[in-house]
Specification:
Layout: H1 10-15, H2 31-38, E1 56-60, E2 68-70, H3 81-84, E3 90-92, E4 97-98, E5 109-114, E6 119-124, H4 139-144, E7 149-153, E8 177-178, E9 184-187, H5 189-207, H6 213-228, H7 235-248, E10 269-274, H8 285-305, E11 311-313, H9 316-325, H10 327-339, E12 342-344, H11 359-377, E13 383-386, H12 396-402, E14 407-410, E15 425-429, E16 435-440, H13 452-460, E17 471-475, H14 486-499, E18 508-509, H15 514-524, E19 533-535
GO molecular function, one term: alpha-mannosidase activity
Domain Glycoside hydrolase family 38 N-terminal: 269-534
Pfam family, one: Ams1-like_1st
């Protein structure tokens, strides 16, 4: 008589973990609907119940806790801090309108000073991508229970006050601005970090091409975060942040700036903070001077909070204005230069046009520029810097090398709407055969927002990957936008954490200078001999 025996070996043990019966619907994931859902998690119609509703735990604006006083400078005058604080101030309140268009900007630009006149940071109002309206109150002031500030505001938009909204339209000299907020707030920083987590995940979902593993994982993780979050349950924020580690890695946040020390040995995208400020464009020189002070003070402040942050700016004229008009801030900038965190570049007096001036005028740009940098900071710039020039004369390579610089950065040729310049990294050879090592960022801008799209473009749009596979990411808001924002530095940390675990996004690094970037290109290309050459004119 035959007997059948069932033995529970490996396969049977595995089947114990896989249910025998299934009565669920099991519908196929409709990807585009899930992507659309992500847009409802922050702001918008559901801001009273989504993540926006928990970004602040407290907010007060009553006169007992926030006392405002105002004095308006007459006409188009620009008084010094010492002159302004001696004037008679009157009580003010949130909601007031100020103007006309010359010296106010709660909806745009302002500078925060201590009561003794030390610049602390810039403010950019409004609700655009360059919004920066937060000022962190020192713990000592919180303990004392009293904090006094002086805020100098300017009645101008980011690009002047055009009467019809067109950037280059004539100014509207009767435009007024409204003080939208002057509140004491307590931010829920865990909620802010979750917002930044979610934003990076959404960028990965929207910006990565095709149907990659990382793109789908980011979408699935972002959707799971939305499922976990509950407005009335503070613990759900920590839970949601734990979910984000599916993409960023376990415990990544505690690593802070050391996240850049992990992962691939070679980074393909090099991040450098920047704030391009036109010395002369849509505003008087006095406004340029204010824009410089606002932007650079903000970056010095960010360096204290983000150790990896490096910031670069050109134009000796702007450094001299800072030295003359804001001596305490100049000393803070100088200290950061000596620490190797604030990097002068360019070697010229201003970011000059090179098509109209004579050779002697161009030579003097470098003579006076390098002389200033050496006299104030003990350095000469190694990298010439003209990202905003409409074409470049073939005489520049010789003049750049004579000014003791080997490298050159430019970018504006990429904005041509007809011709596509064929190179990203190359040797630019001048009219006499003199060459400079040149990089034109594939990101196609000197005001990048440090997004996943920017990082990806730095590789996919690079035109010389066969010779050099690294790109410079020049990020930050210019012309008074204050340069890089905290959210940009937060985003880059998350992008690096992602790149440490996935090959679907180029690795990005921080903490280096523009000169370091070019040094690597020179080394990897056998001193430029493996790079293509471009002769004489660089014209759009």
């Amino acid at each position: 008589m035959a007997h059948a025996h069932c033995h529970s070996h490996g396969p049977a043990a595995e089947s114990d973990q896989y249910p025998k019966m299934n009565y669920g619907p099991g519908a196929k994931w409709i990807k585009h609907l899930t992507k659309d859902r992500l847009g409802t998690f922050n702001g918008g119609h559901f801001s009273d119940v989504n993540l926006s509703s928990v970004l602040y735990t407290h907010r007060i604006d009553n006169q007992e806790n926030v006392k405002l006083e105002v004095w308006s400078a007459p006409g188009l005058t620009k008084p010094s801090f010492e002159e302004a604080v001696k004037q008679k101030f009157r009580p003010a309140r949130k909601g007031e309108s100020f103007g006309p268009s010359f010296e106010f900007d709660p909806g745009c630009e302002a500078m925060v000073f201590t009561k003794d006149g030390t610049p602390l940071q810039g403010i950019t109002g409004g609700y655009g991508g360059d919004r920066r309206v937060e000022h962190i109150i020192p713990r000592s002031a919180v303990k004392a229970g009293k904090y006094e500030l002086v805020i100098e505001s300017s009645c101008n938009g980011m690009f002047g006050v055009p009467w019809n909204g067109d950037t280059i339209a004539p100014p509207d000299m009767n435009r007024y601005f409204q003080l939208a907020s002057a509140d004491l707030v307590v931010p829920n920083m865990e909620a802010w970090h979750l917002m930044w987590d979610f934003q990076t995940l959404r960028e990965l979902t929207d910006s990565l091409p095709g149907n990659t593993s990382l793109q789908n994982k980011a979408l699935k993780t972002a959707n799971a975060i939305m499922n976990v979050f509950e407005k009335g349950d503070p613990s759900s924020i920590a839970h949601a942040r734990k979910v984000a580690e599916e993409v960023f890695g376990e415990g990544w946040h505690e690593k802070s700036d050391s996240i850049y020390e992990e992962g691939p040995e070679k980074a393909q995208i090099w991040g450098i903070g920047h704030c391009h400020i036109d010395t002369a464009w849509l505003w008087p020189y006095r406004v340029t001077q204010q824009k410089v002070a606002r932007s650079w003070s903000t970056q010095v402040d960010l360096m204290e909070r983000y150790p990896e942050h490096r910031f670069t700016c050109s134009q000796a004229q702007q450094y001299k204005w800072l030295e003359q008009l804001y001596p305490p801030l100049f000393e803070r900038v100088k200290a950061k230069i000596l620490e190797g965190k604030f990097h002068p570049v360019g070697g010229s007096w201003v970011e000059n046009d090179s098509n109209m001036p004579s050779g002697e005028a161009l030579a003097r740009q470098f003579i006076f520029g390098q002389r200033y940098f050496e006299s104030r900071f003990g350095i000469r710039c190694k990298t010439a810097w003209l990202p905003d020039s409409f074409g470049l004369t073939g005489a520049l390579p010789q003049l750049i090398r004579l000014a003791d610089m080997d490298y050159f950065f430019t970018q504006k040729l990429s904005w041509n709407n007809i011709n596509v310049f064929p190179h990203s990294t190359f040797n630019w050879v001048g009219i006499d055969g003199t060459q400079v090592l040149c990089h034109m960022t594939p990101v196609d801008t000197y005001t990048a927002q440090a997004t996943v799209g920017d990082i990806n473009k730095g590789l996919t749009n690079h035109k010389n990957l066969e010779s050099s596979d690294i790109s410079l990411l020049v990020f930050g808001n210019g012309d008074g936008g204050g340069g890089p924002l905290p959210k940009m530095l937060e985003n880059l940390r998350r992008i690096r954490a992602t790149g440490n675990r996935s090959r679907d996004i180029p690795p990005v690094n921080m903490g280096h200078s523009v000169d370091d970037f070019f040094d690597v290109i020179a080394k990897d290309s056998a001193a430029g001999t493996e790079l293509p050459n471009w002769w004489v004119l660089l014209q759009p």
